[in-house]
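Example record

One chain of 523 residues, shown exactly as stored in the release files.
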Amino acid sequence: MTTLFEEKGDAAMTFTDRAARFLKEDGAALKADIAELETLVGKPKLIEECGVFGVIGTSDAAALTALGLHALQHRGQEAAGIASFDGKHFHNERFMGLVSDNFSDAQTLHSLAGDAAIGHTRYSTQGETVLRNVQPLYADLDQTGIAIAHNGNLTNSKTLRADLVRRGCIFQSTSDSEIFLQLTARSQYLSIVDKLIESLKQVEGAYALTVLTPEGLIGARDPVGIRPLILGDLKGAPILASETCALDMIGATFVRDIAPGEVVICKADGSVESRQIFPKKDHARPCIFELIYFAKPNSIVDGQSVYGLRKRLGERLAKEAPCDADLVSPIPDSGVPAAIGYAQKTGLPYEMALIRSHHIGRTFIEPEQKIREAGVARKHSPNRGLIEGKRVILIDDSIVRGTTSRKIAQMLRYAGAKEVHMRIACPPILHPDFYGINTPSHEELLAVDRTIEEMRQIIGVDSLAFLSLEGLYKAFRKGKRDDSSPAFTDHCFTGDYPTKLTDRDAEARNAMVTQLSFLAETS
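Predicted structure tokens for this chain:
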């Protein structure tokens, strides 16, 4: 296997040693840029989705997991952890910070013994950012153990937690992911696989799981298919991951997507058993923001390049919302593919009106306003020589609060732009998310109870337009949206939530205690 991290390798070094050195070197630029932002505005509290990874049947399981998590670092930068199993004992290392901060030490990777491992890279969407919430979470069960890594959010976790606490269960974290451990532990089934399956039938919401047990590596995806989970192969070793970019990092091949409501049990001999534990769906209904924003551009989703999908959004946007201007520019980096598509469709020059300092965290997912606003100023510098006296079309993938959009429009005007127009490659976001994305409260969303003209005035641009919902579906080649069976989980645009929202409804009735823990969080 010849992959990126071996290019600087030494034949005398072990695979694990080479992986650790690669992580240290490749993570240096990312770490430096984040430190620079923290020096400027304080430590951001980044909140988004998570990434999961798992492998079985290779002596390099922990090193491969660390590399896979590094490729998934965009899905979570608050904390990371790896759990392994050596046939007798579990090993679990969890840290705050980046994968490269904590797993670039070969000794740490060597301590994670065994031919099977799972990993998790985290932004918190439920539960505080403290070590006790960092995954994988581990628990001793009756004559066995289990470690679990979870991407997504459960929409009935608080309800289940309250009931379990009343029955005497003791929780060690405030993460909704611990619900899986508690329900699995209480199951009367003999097999740990059956115990886990029973727990899955009691939860609601979104989940993609990698689970490490003595019976094998288990993967599970929620019945709707909201969160992604794929199956890969590395020389006969089964791999589970959130995105194909993790497979590319280690030279593995893509096998297939895990189906909605499917559980797979991967063994060290390379065999993979599939169990469809919920009624089979005609198609998955993945979160549409995976395609619009979260997935890496070089990942493949549903057989299509994410980069290509986003480029088509820009092409469709050009058709729906043309503009008389001198140049097209992305808001880096997430708006780049759509801007290229827009420029190519209109024939306008594609230019970089903003010069981005790479690797710094995205702004809309930083909860504190002063961090967002200072972060925007740090992240983008106007290309004055290019834009002075020009009419500029800015392309972005989405607008949530509008903080970034307003600041960038101001910067371009200060730099001499004659006109600033904004085009957004998705519809207005009107509803909050409950499945693992830190969209703000309903009241904080810019588009709620505002017209396009009102949003234009707040942002301070000469014109503003969004891609229509119909245009979005057409760009993704799904035809007209089928309201009875949509191709995507698109509730942020439509309010059409694909699962029950048990906790939200209970909170609306003031029928729930929302304080998850009485322990003051310090680390």
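Notes: Residues 35-47, 358-379 have pLDDT under 50 and may be disordered.
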